[in-house]
Amino acid sequence: MKARRLTLSQRRQLAGVVFALPALALVIGLIAIPIGQAVYYSFTQWDGITTTWIGTSTWTQAFHNSDLWTALKNNAMLLLWVPIALGLPLAIAVLLHQRVAGWKIFRSIYFLPTAISWVVLGLVAERFFAYQGTLNSILHAVGLSGVTTNMLGSESTALAALGITFVFTMIGTNTMLFLTGLATLDPSLEEAARIDGAGRWRIFRHITLPHLSRFIQLAFVMTVIALFSALFSLIFVMTGGGPGYATTTMEFLIYQTGFSQGQFGTAALYGIILFLITGAVGIIQLRLIGSDK
Amino acid sequence: MAAITFDGVTKIYAGKPAVDSLSLHIDDGEFMVLVGPSGCGKTTALRMLAGLEEITSGALSIGDQVVNNVLPKDRDVAMVFQNYALYPHMSVAQNMGFALKIRGESKAMIAEKVRAAAEILRLSDYLDRRPRALSGGQRQRVAMGRAIVRSPQAFLMDEPLSNLDAKLRVEMRLEIARIQRLLGVATLYVTHDQVEAMTMGDRVAVMRDGHLQQVATPQELYDRPANDFVAGFIGSPPMNLLTTRVSHGADVTLDILGQTISVPTRYAAAFSLPASGEVTFGIRPEDIVIATEGLRARVERCEALGAETLLHLSVNGPGASQHLVAKTGPRTSIVAGDDLSVTFALEHAHFFDVASGATLRAAS
């Protein structure tokens, strides 16, 4: 008996499924299963070897743990640096887009941090902010010895030093993103606006900025996600989460709880909280992007 | 509203003049078309008038004011771009009202002006739409609307119809000409399409390699081209230009690859023909007549266009040939490969200097 031949449409669908399988396997193996495991471990006491089911007690205890709230507060405080991590690259990109003298060299310089490991950037920042580091040397040199401080050693300033370093690490990526956006801006729109009577600021406000809105939204999502999930290496080399818990973020708290204190169940729970926060930010942002008809 | 004057305006790019000593006056209310092939400097001239390009030398005036150093926003001109340059994130109404908003006019005034312009342009039903939700013709009209709501001193249009299909282009050609006459604003319209130039302009300025070749009414350009470039550029198909050897007898005799034609003195008298030597003989395709006797030519190709037929002819001589296009009626029995004879309506003949290309028409 002759086998039934598939229609063209069915063959296309089949090809689609076949091509999607490897990616699907990776997503399931590397993302879905670990998330499921993390959820499971959050209901257990797990020291890395033995697992004991303890139900929801980890969850109830965790929310009474002041370290969690400190870490969440630190994350929230670091969010205040996001506008700067977007605004500064935006200003740089707009300037570079004007083809100012030496713009190609400046473009490479601004992009450089992106090509360097954050561990290295953290070490450089640590030397910069240290009590006998570059920042204080500069302040001494310009006669401002009175304002020198040990930024990384003080609870009130360490988080700011981390925020500044974070902004620095994001400048390259965000500047490139905005430059890409500006490159897609039809120059005749700006010319039309000039003829319509608009000056530089109004062109930026009414033409450039609306055009860049999608790029700004994307940069915002990337920056916030980096803030929640990529600061570990900076914190590790700059402050180790201190002084006290002054620079401990959720991400760092997960590491400390799991690997320093051996409470993997609690660490898994913190991981889920962090996942939900970043997920919520991403979803809200995607909704905003999607609603911009 | 105001007149526009280019007085010896030059623009140099990388040491090479893109526009060379352009002198052109556009009267208040006049529709001037600047036409020429790609790279002739017509768009550069328009952009200098808009203030988007700096002027290397010369003086450019709008009304009584020299505007060489005046910013685009202060020139009070409106421009329609080739790609329309509509603001994609704004509605049709916002696009049209943007310049008025920048000018600080009240919302009520803006709404009223936009409504009036939309009515002229038949855009009233589309005011809330974004440009991407409009057809090419509608976008083009919005670009026009953005220009007319401002009541500017001058309209500048940079090939505004080139992105439209052929049918829509004909419609919009009429539409733009209608609106321009309705508003009576001095207009500089740039195009490479000589049909647009001929059908829209009160006068047409022809440019080539940065130089102005001729400024005249469309009919004048067609009937009395200043040089062989204008003769070859204006008209579709263009004028036939044949290299001939001239000699004088009872009539003027032209030798084309060994064949001769006589030009009666009454027609030749309008030209300052040399006593002997080569001249370029120009004749329009519609001024070639198929006859039983005359210049012998071979039909290389027939193009039936419906209402007329174009015959591509070759006049062959020893070791050389010259190409001619003749226009004849529809449904002809002539086919490629036929040998035939043609005569010319010599009262419409043109003569140009071979070296300079300038017309040999005697100054009237």
Describe what you observe in this structure.
The complex is a heterodimer of chains A (293) and B (364). Chain A is an all-alpha fold. Chain A has a domain at 61-114 and 155-265: MetI-like fold, CATH 1.10.3720. Chain A is built from 13 helices and 2 strands, in the order αββαααααααααααα. Chain A has a two-stranded antiparallel ribbon. The radius of gyration of chain A is 24 Å and the shape is flat. The mean pLDDT of chain A is 88. With 364 residues, chain B is α+β, with helices and mostly antiparallel strands. Chain B has 2 domains: 4-233, Rossmann fold (3-Layer(aba) Sandwich), CATH 3.40.50.300; 240-353, OB fold (Dihydrolipoamide Acetyltransferase, E2P) (Beta Barrel), CATH 2.40.50. Chain B contains 9 helices and 20 strands. Chain B has a 6-stranded mixed β-sheet with strand order 6-7-8-3-9-10, sandwiched between helices. In chain B, a hairpin with a 2-residue loop joins β4 (57-62) and β5. In chain B, α2 (92-103) crosses α3 and α4 (136-148) runs parallel beside α5 (166-183). The longest helix of chain B has 18 residues, at 166-183. The model of chain B has no long low-confidence stretch (mean pLDDT 92). The chains are: A mainly alpha (293), B alpha+beta (364). The A-B interface holds A 186, 188-189, 191-199, 202, 206-207, 210-211, 213 and B 50-52, 71-73, 75, 77-79, 81-83, 85, 87-89, 98-99, 102-103, 146, 150.
